[in-house]
Amino acid sequence: MSTTAEAGAASITHSNASSSVLDPANFPQTKSSDSIYICLVYDPIDSQACLRFTRSPTAGANVLFLGTTRNNFDSRPVSRLSYSAYPSLAIKSLFAIAEDVQKKHGLEKIAIVHRLGEVKIEEESIAVSVSSGHRASGWRGAEEILERVKARAEIWKREWFADTGEVEEGVWRANKDRDAQGNVITKP
């Protein structure tokens, strides 16, 4: 990474502690280049660090999307979410998505940071930040990254509903069961 990119990536970095492949002590896990930064974290996402990484003097647009935990789903009260992943594959998938979308939309820089573990109501579970010469490619690129991450990345979501007395296991949910407008995707 360049010096500016290193500064942005360094401020995205967090630390933690525990045991196994998903042991928070083994995170953050990252993969980066001069123009792409991918990170899986257990700690809250530093959205400003994502913007610092993607900022560029030649970019006329910086787009930041933050996916947050809402307190409801299908009119049911949600108490919290938890994310699990296959980290090494998820990072490779996220990087491949970023490379492809970067080429397709002519994006300058991309940062994708995804939380693992428990994500409380109003906290961010994902940050997608992109920079581009103009806003149209930035908007389209950020949206495409998010949709591809939901469809392809080896990251799984578990949801707890407050109206079920907090079932210990929660409900595993597919990230791709809704489109960008929140409509249910019907399977053929």
TrEMBL record:
Q: Does the keyword Amino-acid biosynthesis apply?
A: no
Q: Which GO BP terms apply?
A: Mo-molybdopterin cofactor biosynthetic process
Give the top-level enzyme category.
transferase
Question: Matching InterPro entries, A to Z?
Answer: MoaE_sf (IPR036563), MOCS2B_euk (IPR028888), Mopterin_biosynth_MoaE (IPR003448)
Keywords attached to this Swiss-Prot or TrEMBL record, sorted alphabetically, are: Cytoplasm, Molybdenum cofactor biosynthesis, Transferase
Binding residues annotated for substrate, in chain numbering: 134-135, 150, 157-159
Q: What is the protein's quaternary organization?
A: Heterotetramer; composed of 2 small (MOCS2A) and 2 large (MOCS2B) subunits.
Q: Which family does it belong to?
A: Belongs to the MoaE family. MOCS2B subfamily.
- Name assigned to this protein: Molybdopterin synthase catalytic subunit
Q: Which organism is it from?
A: Knufia peltigerae
- What phylogenetic lineage does the species belong to? Eukaryota, Fungi, Dikarya, Ascomycota, Pezizomycotina
Gene giving rise to this polypeptide: cnxH
